[in-house]
Design goal:
Layout (H helix, E strand, L loop, with lengths): L7 E7 L4 H16 L5 E6 L4 H6 L7 E6 L2 E7 L4 H13 L9 H21 L5 H16 L2
Parallel strand pairs: 1-2
Antiparallel strand pairs: 1-3, 3-4
Helix pairs in contact: 1-3, 4-5
Length: about 150
């Protein structure tokens, strides 16, 4: 199998045993149909083509990789929303890098961890606990403030 067929494409790395791949596949296919003619879409079984998967640094499935003019402009691993998948196709089409964002559930969980450390710092009188509180809060908000 060749690793490239188009200058603008989205590669969807899957595996037969992957239940998340089966969940993401219909959405990725629907989005691919809306970009038909501008962005090529290829589904690649990472278990049958480990050399191709390795060439793109695939460590887990599902992984969706957006390519524009021989450079990777976006990558998502795991289950993603329709808008995230659309943004990858748009990135492949325009060549602009895709901005990664975390889900609102992840953001709430990370902020909850930060709040827990902050509460422990106050209740226990341990100033050292402010460091992990600040780190968790930064990790929760980084994608909103980065360039």
């Amino acid at each position: 199998m060749t690793t490239r067929s188009h200058d603008t494409e989205v590669l969807f790395f899957t595996a037969p045993h992957c239940s998340v791949c089966r969940v993401v596949r219909p959405t990725a296919t629907e989005v691919a149909e809306t970009f038909e003619g501008t962005v090529a879409f290829r589904e690649i079984d990472a278990t049958q083509h480990p050399d191709v998967a390795a060439s793109y640094g695939i460590k887990g499935v599902p992984t969706i990789v957006a390519i524009h003019d021989d450079r990777v402009v976006g990558r998502y691993v795991g289950s993603r929303s329709r808008s995230d998948i659309e943004s990858l196709f748009a990135s492949a089409s325009t060549g602009e890098r895709s901005r990664r964002s975390i889900s609102s559930t992840d953001r709430v969980l990370r902020l909850s961890v930060a709040a827990t450390f902050a509460a422990a710092a106050v209740l226990l009188g341990e100033p050292i606990l402010w460091a992990p509180a600040a780190g968790a809060a930064s990790f929760a908000l980084w994608d909103l403030v980065r360039p």
